[in-house]
Design brief:
Layout (H helix, E strand, L loop, with lengths): L1 H22 L4 H8 L2 H23 L32 E10 L2 E8 L9 E3 L3 E2 L2 E2 L2 E2 L2 H10 L7 E3 L6 E2 L4 E2 L6 E3 L6 E2 L4 E2 L6 E4 L5 E2 L4 E2 L5 E4 L2 E4 L8 H6 L1
Parallel strand pairs: 3-7, 6-8, 7-10, 8-11, 9-12, 11-14, 12-15, 13-16
Antiparallel strand pairs: 1-2, 4-5, 16-17
């Protein structure tokens, strides 16, 4: 009887050891069953979705374009170059000695002989003619030649050089297109008829050193506003250019 009990105990021990050895190894049949179960399929789909969600994040981590770098700029359109004005030929300025009187004496002056130089747009008086400095411009001859030829109608700008002290009749003769006049600081005298029929001349700055402006200095220049010694004088109501009347307005 004792031998039977020992044998039974030995068999039980052997079975127990075999059971423990197989406990850590999954049963292939069981494994297949779990893999094909609905729960396993749900878990697989969840994992796939998780992987898909990771991909956009990875894409967002891609380096963005560097916007700090200057982009090539389109070339700006070039403004048209100012049109070059036709300038008076220096040979068209001549010295006259019977055009201007000062203290009942005839004096030399320089006039622009418009008969020989048509279509001039820039009338720039020279500072020297025939080797002599120019101090007086204009005069009776300038008025007569401009009226006879009509060649001053295209003049847009007149420049009087430094050194000129007096501008006489015909400095701006019948310049219907004249818009700009530049006068020097050396100027002291503006005679009657210096500016004749210049309807487009709107502004004229007279240097403070000018001491005499004769009546009729701005004949038929109705649009002109003269700035002189800090004041402005309009020729609008003074078509004959009577400077005295303009200063009394």
């Amino acid at each position: 009887m004792r031998k039977k009990l020992v044998c039974i105990a030995s068999v039980i021990a052997i079975l127990s050891m075999a059971a423990c050895g197989n406990a850590g190894q999954p049963d292939p049949a069981t494994e297949n069953t779990l893999a094909s179960s609905p729960a396993a399929e749900v878990q697989t789909e969840t994992n796939a979705e998780s992987e898909e969600q990771v991909k956009p994040e990875e894409a967002s981590e891609a380096p963005a374009a560097d916007l700090s770098k200057e982009q090539p700029k389109e070339p700006a359109e070039k403004e048209p170059a100012p049109k070059e004005l036709k300038t008076a030929d220096p040979k068209s300025f001549v010295v006259r000695d019977m055009d201007v009187t000062i203290d009942d004496h005839w004096v030399e002056s320089v006039i622009f002989n418009s008969e020989n130089d048509p279509g001039v747009q820039l009338l720039e008086y020279p500072s020297e003619v025939d080797g002599k400095p120019v101090t007086i411009i204009g005069g009776f001859g300038a008025v007569m030649t401009s009226m006879a030829s009509g060649n001053c109608k295209d003049v847009l700008k007149i420049v009087v050089p430094e050194g000129v002290t007096r501008i006489d009749a015909g400095t701006a003769p019948l310049c219907s297109q004249l818009e700009t006049v530049e006068l020097p600081d050396s100027l002291t005298y503006i005679a009657a008829g210096a500016f004749i029929s210049c309807p487009r001349l709107k502004e004229l700055h007279i240097p403070d050193g000018v001491t005499t402006i004769e009546e009729g200095a701005f004949e038929n220049c109705q649009s002109l506003v003269v700035t002189y010694q800090g004041e402005q004088f309009s020729m609008e109501n003074d078509p004959n250019g009577w400077w005295t009347d303009a200063r009394q307005q």
